[in-house]
Amino acid sequence: MNSSGIKFRVWFCGLLTVATFYFLAPTVWTLWHPDDVKTPSWMMDTAMPLGLDLKGGVHMVLGVDLDKVELDQLGAYGRNIERMSADKKIELESVKLIEKSGELEVKLKSPADAEKFRAMVTDNWAQTLELLRPVDGVEYLRASPQAIQNIRETARNQSIETIRNRIDEFGVAEPLISRRGEDQILVQFPGAKEPDRLKTLIGQTAQLNFQIVEGCDENTADCIETQRADLEAKIKSVEVAGNYTKESFTRFSEYRDRVNSDLKDQLPANSAIAFEKGNDPNEVSKTVYIPVLLSTKNIFSGEFIDQAFVQMSSGSNGLAMGGDRPEVAFHINAAAAKTFEQFTGQFVGHYMAIVLDGVVKSKPVLQSAIGDSGRITLGSGAYESMLQEAQDLSIVLRAGALPASIEVQEERVIGPSMGRDAIESGKTALIWSFFLVLAFMAVYYGLSGVIASIVTLINVSMIFAILGALHATLTLPGIAGIVLTLGMAVDALIIIFERMREEVRAGKTVNQVIELGFDKAYSAILDSNITTIIGAMVLLSFGTGSIRGFAFTLMVGIASNVFMATYFTKTIFMLFMKNKKTLSIGMSRHELNELATNKG
Amino acid sequence: MELFNPKKMHFPFVKSFKVFVPLSLAAFCICLFMMFVKPGIKYGVDFRGGVEAGVAFKDANIDPSALRKELDPVIPGLSIVEVQGNITQGFSKEFLITGATDEKDDAGKILSEHLQKFGAKDTDWTISKLDSVGPRVGGELKKSALMSIIYTAILIMLYIYIRFDMRYSPGAIVGVLHDLVFTCGFLIISGTEFSTNVVAALLTLAGYSINDTVVVFDRIREAESTMLGKSREAVVDYAINSTLSRTVNTGLTTILSLIILYFIGGPSLRDFSLTLTVGVMIGIYSSIFVASPLYLWGDKLLGAKSASPGAPVKSHVKANKIKEAKV
């Protein structure tokens, strides 16, 4: 190696060491001052946030509305029955869902079809539906106990999975999610900073529907405005009659349902009022709810979305931020794209409302049929809040809809005093582990062993500096990981030193020993570490939560290990050990003398 | 210091395979039997659920570690966290206690009995709530865990095939499997519960184990081309002996750290460090006595077809012939 090469190496390694400790400092500082919220101002913002076990966090119990899921599913069965009856030429007067008793009421047009109808039900829904005794020629159906159990079980598991996906995408470290009791889910967020945002993120059912606006198309001038004025007047009148306002209800959906049921007779058949959130034109900070009349028949479910992401559009509204505004683009899976195209093709020129959890997000005019992709614009507002809304919306669309609505029933903040003990013992273990490994290496490998320990210390610091820079959360198992890394990271160095000893025994000069030791150890170090990385990569793509965190830490650790052993250590050896008479590598003087005599 | 100097010390490992391979196989079967038939793996609260209780105290200075000390022997998989805000009225400190107890009522009884130390029930302290909790790790996760094991095995086999050759693959995979199965066997015998910490330990072990095996294999690969004319058995013996020092030393430094974790790292890391300590020892054993015999077996089976360019097939055959001739 020529002198400019070694110069570069020394500079590179030196800068890396300085950077490492600069990035690591905040994390170390946090461990020694767990009570302080802020790190000193001169430090970088690279402290690893501490996990729930070390500093507490948010603990939530969520209730899942499984009864609603059961009814929804029964309603879906009802629609299937309607469809199949039409196929089988059984004419139905009406199919109604009786929410109170959880039954389907089916009125047949002609009593003569009763036999045929019952046969159809038993043929197709033997497992899921039970026929009750008909009353006055009206058929009643109920979901079988087995089907109910199935529906509830699936909904619960799907809810847990969906919440897990959403939180994973949101990037909260190591959430703990578990079932509790019959219809509860327990979620723990270590050191969660934004409990409110998490709550809305979890709570969104994320049921996306595309619904055609009733009685309006683009050819009717001012249609939307006229409709709005008309609806607002109607709503006002029922509000006055019933003596309530939006504020009388805890949930907006309850208010909407009340308005709809009060106005049922005044609205066209198969339509319902939904609201769009907007800004008051006179007072921007004030939210207004704009009523829109939507068809409940011409509806397309958005569950077929398989990709959603935030993109920028140059809005014609000319926002302050250079006109760019965030919106959510989505793709519909291939299977549903065709039906969606047919659906939208039917209503070209009409307004199509994009409805998320019952709230209208936007209602663009359908210019042409839409196939496999589309986008959702988000009204207007401050750039930051719109971006956040777009991000959250794309998360819930990607992670899938919750099968049931979810309500936060219990929310607690967990205190940090238990973690204090854990931090203390973690620190002690860390210090002891370092000195014991140092002692072992020094005894066994002499000066080289001391170098190895120092390199390992820098190595472990670098791993955690990287993790800190990436804002990975530090948990007690994480500290255990550092302690363990201290022991395991010397592996590559041990491989190198053993190789060097072999070269010494083979009678090579010190410089040759250094070159050959590193060279020959290289393939063993590389192959053994790549196989471990393969395992970590699989875990990273298949695992969730803490497993992914573990895999990630492992990969960073391995990369750092390999680099430190093959490059950093070699630089130190080239700097301090080269051109010496003997290499201090812990070989006995006796053996070295023997070798010297043999050589001579 | 030198414990193993291959120049002076040479262990006849290959000869001993005759003894160790059947032993390993028998023990492997026993461990599998224990895992899947009887008594089976004991899952902790993370996997099978348990009981969650809230306990509130009047005394604001109550020491959580005293509480832990009291409950640790009687509640399996104990975890205690302090609750802030929303404390039961009339009390000043509250803890959330979870454990892998099957019955809610039993847990209530155990708590009532063992908390006598902290004063009278309902005046000095109270159980503010008692619920059963479901497992934190659902069926979906178990499935994805299984999938990752399968994919990892396939990918590692592929990598070994590319960098080494087919003869090495079974040894690498079975070596890891062996270590995991044996460690699970140990966990069952010692009555340790499967918690997420134990799973993390097993994952770490898998990485450690494959690492260990590949280092030995690397030396076999190298010796195949430098020791032409020598029998495969001699090559393997040489490779194991010359990596022995490294195998033992890395194991030693790792175990050193683990022992410190076990004694100083606090109660929640005890299972983690115990599992890994045992696993690392098994790993050292397996890279010598399981992976290497499997390589020899793979070599006999596939050697003629897919020997690497570094190890000409002819010399290999010749070496065997010479050996036969000598006999």
Would you mind describing this structure in some detail?
Chain A is α+β, with helices and mostly antiparallel strands and 600 residues long. In chain A, helix 11 crosses helix 12. Chain B is 64% helix and 9% strand. Chain B is built from 11 helices and 4 strands; from the N terminus they run H-H-E-H-E-E-H-E-H-H-H-H-H-H-H. The two termini of chain B are 40 Å apart. The interface between A and B is large, with 78 and 83 residues. Strand 16 of chain A pairs antiparallel with strand 2 of chain B, so a sheet runs across the interface.
Helix content of chain A: 40-55%
Task: Give the % helix of chain B.
Answer: 55-70%
Number of helices of chain B: 11
Going across the biggest sheet of chain A, name each strand in turn: 8-10-9-14-13
**What quaternary form is this?**
heterodimer
Question: So how many helices of chain A?
Answer: 15
Number of strands of chain B: 4
> Termini separation of chain A (Å)?
29 Å
Unreliable residue runs of chain A: 315-322
Averaged pLDDT of chain B: 81
Number of strands of chain A: 16
Shape of chain A: elongated
- How far apart the termini of chain B lie comes to 40 Å
Biggest beta sheet summary of chain B = 4 strands, antiparallel
Strand content of chain B: 5-15%
Quick one: which chains have the greatest interface? Answer: A-B, 78 and 83 residues
Rg of Cα set of chain B: 26 Å
Contiguous low-pLDDT stretches of chain B (5 residues minimum) are: 305-327
SS-based class of chain B? alpha+beta
Primary descriptors:
heterodimer; A: 600 residues; alpha+beta; 5-stranded mixed barrel; 4-stranded antiparallel sheet; 16 strands; 54% helix; 20% strand; B: 327 residues; 11 helices; 4 strands; 64% helix; disordered C terminus
Q: What does this entry show, briefly?
A:
The complex is a heterodimer of chains A (600) and B (327). Chain A is α+β, with helices and mostly antiparallel strands and 600 residues long. Chain A has helices at residues 3-32, 52-55, 66-87, 114-125, 145-170, 195-203, 223-242, 252-262, 334-346, 383-399, 417-469, 476-505, 510-542, 545-576, 589-599, and strands at 57-64, 92-98, 103-108, 129-131, 138-143, 176-180, 184-190, 208-217, 271-279, 287-301, 305-314, 324-332, 350-356, 359-362, 373-376, 406-414.
